[in-house]
Amino acid sequence: MIALLMRNRLVVGLASFIGAIALMGIFAPWIAPYDPYTNDILIKFAPYSLEHPLGTDHLGRDILSRLIYGIRPTLFLSLLTMIATISLGAFMGLVSGYFRGFLDEVIMRLVDMMLSFPSQIMIFAVIALLGVDVQNIIIANVVIKWAWYARLIRTKVMQYRDRNFILYSRCIGSKESFILGRHLLPSIASEIAVLASLDVGWTIINISTLSFLGLGIQAPLPEWGAMLNEAKNVLTINPMQMIAPGVAIVILVSAFNLLGDAIRDALDPKEVQS
Amino acid sequence: MIKLDHVCVHFPKSSGHFIFKKTYQQILYDVSFDVKEGECLGILGESGSGKSTLGRVICSLLQPFKGSISIDSVELYTKRGALEPGTLAVVFQDYTTSVNPRFTVRDIINESFIVLFRRTGKCIDVEQEAVRLLKLVGLDEEFLYRYPHQLSGGQLQRICIARAIAVQPKVILFDEAISSLDAHTQVQVMDLLKDIKKQYNFTYIFITHDLPSVTYLCDRVLFLYKGRVEEVIPVEDMSHVTSDYAKSLLHSILDINM
What we know:
Helix content of chain A: over 70%
Distance between the termini of chain B: 39 Å
CATH topology of chain A: MetI-like fold
Number of helices of chain A: 12
Number of domains of chain A: 1
Oligomer: heterodimer
Largest interface: A-B, 19 and 29 residues
Structural class of chain A: mainly alpha
CATH class of chain B: Alpha Beta
Distance between the termini of chain A: 13 Å
Strand content of chain B: 15-25%
Shape of chain B: globular
CATH architecture of chain A: Orthogonal Bundle
CATH superfamily of chain B: P-loop containing nucleotide triphosphate hydrolases
Number of strands of chain A: 0
Order of helices and strands of chain B: EEEHEEEHHHEHEHEEH
Strand content of chain A: under 5%
Number of strands of chain B: 10
Strand order of the largest sheet of chain B: 6-7-8-3-9-10
Mean pLDDT of chain A: 86
Number of helices of chain B: 7
CATH superfamily of chain A: MetI-like
Radius of gyration of chain B: 19 Å
Mean pLDDT of chain B: 85
Radius of gyration of chain A: 22 Å
CATH topology of chain B: Rossmann fold
Shape of chain A: elongated
């Protein structure tokens, strides 16, 4: 699968673009020109210049540095959330799609229950219930979103469940863990990869939305959504402050969405045959 | 060895759902027969006669509605894991879907070895054993690291047979296993099956719609028609069939051969 992905130029390009952003986040203290917390009220609302490439905000903090430091919560939190969501969703989907029967009924009715609420509102409700905290954002996202993935993956598993190679395994009495882990999971791995990369984009927007509304990452921490929130307060005085974090979110989310589409194209079974 | 006792199978009809009552279509009616150890039983029937369903029942993939089935006096479908893993192996008609496309030939055969290991606890050198089995089915070791899409249909069906032998089962079920091969390959594979049977003393159940291959390979033949057993007769006595369906089937084939 990986070799197949490496052959696709779009996948490699987008993945390395996202990788570069991640590296910038990891090495932020060395890359960022200024400290993201030092404020200098004398140079507040500085326009774009060589000293401050993206200007400064209402407290005179360098926006570029804040943007670079902001990669950490934005990207890594959403990756973490995505991994947790997909693992839970994939596990539930596999179990309910493969074993069917009573277990399937229970899981699917639970999924129906989760899907009958509008997800954004549910996330607000969960955070309001648990309190504003980074870990609560992740919990809220996982609890609300796993149901989507459980249902999608269950459908996929049911397509493979009656393939002859699985029937053979069941017939000779292979262990269920072998069938699930070696046969089914690799068969649906490409689907999961597509879902995962699309999900990251969704989570980035979601975490940023929460931060923008003041329910997510809190004020001094540089996070793109929170930066937008701060910029909103001074929108009439300095509209330029909104552009940098806004564009950054759009670019990163589009990169993940494009990556999802590109992975799906690259792993298309019609191309696998060749 | 294998004993089926009044097996009935029915499926809920897709159409004709009432709110509280499902209607069923019966596939198998009161099927009873037994297979002796080391025997090859051919199950002959036209399409839709329920022979593949019968195969699935024997494979413990489909629980019958009524009746019982036992292999080596172990009752199937009573509780999970009653039957030792690897007692029965199966070769399917459609070789393209019967192996995992992401596995190499070695992995395909290795799955059977894992089951064998669980049953007997015997350690085996996977590479060496796999090559031996490949040679047995007329392939050589260069196939070991190939993927299924790099093999032809006949080669793949031989891999499926090798994989079934690798479990060292008591019974191998062939569900139209050679019907999708061309005539020349069919004869080759049947000769191969005969040899293997002599070597290992397997019991075969051979499901097919093809009369000549039954007469070539099997000891006894069972005629299945519309879900009912019409007649079970040794192959040598094939000319003395008594039931109407078997007669008409034989006549239709003999007419073509003339």
